[in-house]
# Entry
Amino acid sequence: MSKFLGEFMVTLLVFAMLLPAVASADELVIYSARKEHLIQPLIDIYSAETGTSISFVTDKEGPLLQRLKAEGKNTHADLLITVDAGNLWHAASEGILQPISSAILEKNIPAHLRDPEGYWFGLSERARTIVYSTERVKPAELSSYEALGEKQWQKRLLLRTSKKVYNQSLIAMLIAEHGQKETEQIVRAWVGNLAASPFSSDTKLMEAILAGQGDVGIVNTYYFGRLQKKIPELKLALFWPNQKTGGVHVNVSGAGVTRYAKNPVGAIKFLEWLSSEKAQNLFADANMEYPVNPQVKAHPFVTAWGTFSPSTQNLADAGRLQSDAIMLMDRAGYR
Ligand code: FE
# Structure
């Protein structure tokens, strides 16, 4: 064999070795309502590890859904990442997600934090819990979401607007637990105790407690964390309600594979990686949330808020009962 031919064969061999790797290098397109700075670090690591080239679009929930619907079969999106089971359920009901099954996802994510039919999977958990003024409330005075409707909280309760999906999901989960009639009584009692009109954000609600406008409210844990980072001597604390009854209301940020994904296999692999022990802290800690994977501990900043038992009712109920919740809040005068 001539030297030239030998070199040619070696070159050919090198190419043959490279080829499968090049062919299997995935391309993945993600539409995300979770903010860019929260997912970019994960994408960078995953791309470096697997050679997957990932592009993503971030926008608000509504525009992303509209876009997916308008693009239909022509969409480039493989994966939709968003917050709140209510939104994930809504995306599935609009026909833009596809059901998938994965033993890894089913092992890593508790059943109540993913869709029973596999249309979406929770990737980080947040609690929607009670926040109170440490100057004017003793934790022993608090017990449950329902009890915020009692006389002692008259003109002391603050709520965020009922237009926010977080509250729609909370009320939907209360309906799942208590039924319509009882839930309406609870919400009416809350409205009767309001110290101010509902706020546009959890942060504004907490700032109003600090300003003395009210004493207790209901917020997502990571907003509390953000305020705590801004104001170290924060005169607010979280309370874990319903510890003897249904547990603390939790929700997720999560994702689903799009119905017309060009690379569903790659999308599932990425989801599996996001649910793994390796990626869970990166995903959850970036937003001061709880990992969904029970093998993974939350960041110490988050665990410092204390431990609690969460509701283990399937979050699909937050979607299934969303329109009931919206109508109920309207009837009860919760604006
Ligand atoms: Fe939020």
Observations:
- The mean pLDDT is 94.
- The chain is about 45% helix and 15% strand.
- The chain has two domains: 22-125+251-298, 126-249+316-331.
- Residues 126-249+316-331 form a domain with the D-Maltodextrin-Binding Protein; domain 2 fold (CATH 3.40.190.10).
